[in-house]
Amino acid sequence: MHRQEILDHVRNIILATNQGLFPDDVSEFASMTYDLGMDSFHLESMISRLKDEVADIEFTPWYIKASRRGHDTVGSMVDFIDERMVRDVPAELPEGRATHLSNAGPAGLDVEVA
């Protein structure tokens, strides 16, 4: 999954969990709490959906860093997910192993490993 796909998916989840927002409100630089008005319930709902739909990532490190004023941007969340997904994809498989792995992404999204 490329960064732009992650960004689009995060935006869609934010819009779904906070229906008072408009698509133009959810920019990469928008603070989730200050600009978008998300509270802990909204953040937890979003993180839960991201874990289910994108990748089973531990978001505590992002949440700790994001709790500092201005660090809870949409872009910081996207970067965090992007970094974890790259780190979790194996570089190569041992001989004789399956060459097609599922990347715990949205339904139908698979990563081909050469």
Strand order of the largest sheet: 1-2
**Element-level helix/strand string:** HHHHEE
Mean pLDDT: 78
CATH class: Mainly Alpha
Structural class estimated from helices and strands: mainly alpha
In CATH terms, what is the architecture? Orthogonal Bundle
Largest sheet: 2 strands, antiparallel
Could you name the ranges where pLDDT drops below 50 across 5 or more consecutive residues? 91-114
Q: Write down the CATH topology.
A: Non-ribosomal Peptide Synthetase Peptidyl Carrier Protein, Chain A
- Provide the gyration radius in Å: 15 Å
- The CATH homologous superfamily is called ACP-like
Assign a percent range to the helix content: 40-55%
Number of strands: 2
Measure the end-to-end span: 16 Å
Could you say how many structural domains there are in total? 1
Tertiary shape = globular
Total number of helical segments? 4
Strand content: 5-15%
How would you explain this protein's 3D organization?
There is one protein chain. The protein is mainly alpha-helical and 114 residues long. It has a single domain (3-88), classed as Non-ribosomal Peptide Synthetase Peptidyl Carrier Protein, Chain A (Orthogonal Bundle), CATH 1.10.1200.10. It is 45% helix and 5% strand. It contains four helices and two strands, in the order ααααββ. The chain has helices spanning 3-17, 40-53, 60-66, 74-88; strands spanning 100-102, 110-112. The chain has a two-stranded antiparallel ribbon with strand order 1-2. β1 and β2 (110-112) form a beta hairpin. α1 (3-17) crosses α2 (40-53) and α1 packs across α4. 21% of the residues are buried. Residues 4-85 form the Carrier domain. This is Carrier domain-containing protein. InterPro entries: ACP-like_sf (IPR036736), PP-bd_ACP (IPR009081).
